[in-house]
Sequence to fold (172 residues):
Amino acid sequence: MNQTNKVLESENFIIVNEYTKQPVEKYIESEADMENDLIDTLQRQGYQYLKDINTEDKLINFTRTEINRLNNVELSDDEWERFKNNYLLRRDDSYVDCTKKFQINNYYDLEMDDGSIKNICIIDKKNLYKNRFQVINQMKKEKHRYDVTILLNGIPMIQIELKKRGIKIKDD
Fold:
């Protein structure tokens, strides 16, 4: 049995008087394996895996379905376009503006086709169990491909780029 005595210890390091190097396994997990493991883990935690959503158009259609479900409405094409363009995907929104939509302004007063106003929410803060978490992978948008994306009610919240050891994040 090796006994190790501390020579010096600080917040950032420990110096010992003996060190025996342990053999390292040569197994290198592929990015696909990491992706599958992450998706499996998220599914076990209750995330819905949406394997067929891999383009921006499919994601937007799914988000519409989720917004309809969350608000118990069926937005017409015109209503959806107004909601999407004037609130959800406003081109001039900054990251701060987008964050405020979830933190502060999670309701939008949408003018319906009949002239009435309906509050449309993107997250239900009163009944959290109405919200749904989803995970998608290999989402393509323009020239980019995202390994894993976590959605809340169909809205992308987190994009994860997976790289095996030794590969720089900018390498594709």
User: Anything to note?
Assistant: Residues 56-71 form the longest helix (16 residues). Helices lie at 31-44, 56-71, 77-88, 95-103.
